[in-house]
Amino acid sequence: MTRAWILPVLLVLCGSVLSTRLFFKGSPGTAAALLLLFALFACLNSPLIFPRSISALEAQRRSAADGRPIVFWRPGCTYCLRLRIRLGRSARRLHWVDIWRDPAGAAAVREANDGNETVPTVVVAGRPHTNPDPAWVREQLSPPA
Question: What residues does the Glutaredoxin domain cover (predicted)?
Fold first, then answer.
C-alpha cells in the first residue's frame, strides 16, 4: 500500500470501530452519522478528489507544449486540498504531480524550496510559486487579454 492511502484507510477503520461501538450501545443514528463523517474525511485526504497525477517529466513536457501550470502536491496536505477545492473544475486544466509517487517531482519541489518539500508548489512558465493563492492560479489559466 502506498503511503498516500495510509491516512484514508486509518480514518475509515477508526470510524468503523467507533460506529460499531455506538451501534451496539443503542445509537444507530449517531453511529451512521459518525461513519459518514469519517468516510468524508477519508475521501478528502485521499488522492481520489485530485486529477490524475503524472510524472514530473511528463508534466514539464506537456506544460512546455500547452503553457499550463504544473502543481506539485501530496495527499493529506491541507493547503493542496484547499487549492484543489477552490479551483473547482479549473483544476483539471492543470498538470498535477504527486511528489510521493514521483521522486523527480519531489526533487523539483526541494530545489524550488531550499531543500524542503513544501506543497503545493505551482510552476508557471518555469517559475515556482509556493502555496499561491487559488485565485492567482486560476488567473494563470486564463488566456492573456
Answer: 71-127
SS3 43: helix
* CA dihedral of residues 115, 103, 5, 52 (deg, nearest 10): 110
Q: Which three cell numbers stand for residue 65?
A: 507544449
Query: What would the CATH number be for the domain defined by 50-141?
Result: 3.40.30.10
What is the Cβ-side half-sphere exposure of residue 134, based on CA atoms within 13 angstroms? 13
Would you kindly state where each structural domain of the chain is located, as residue ranges?
Answer: 3-47, 50-141
CB atoms inside a 10 Å sphere around CB 9: 12
Q: Give dist(CA 29, CA 14) in Å, integer.
A: 17
Query: pLDDT tens track of the chain, all 145 residues?
Result: 467 788 889 999 999 999 999 999 999 999 999 999 999 988 877 777 777 889 999 999 999 999 999 999 998 888 998 999 899 888 889 999 999 999 999 999 999 999 999 999 999 989 999 999 999 999 998 765 5
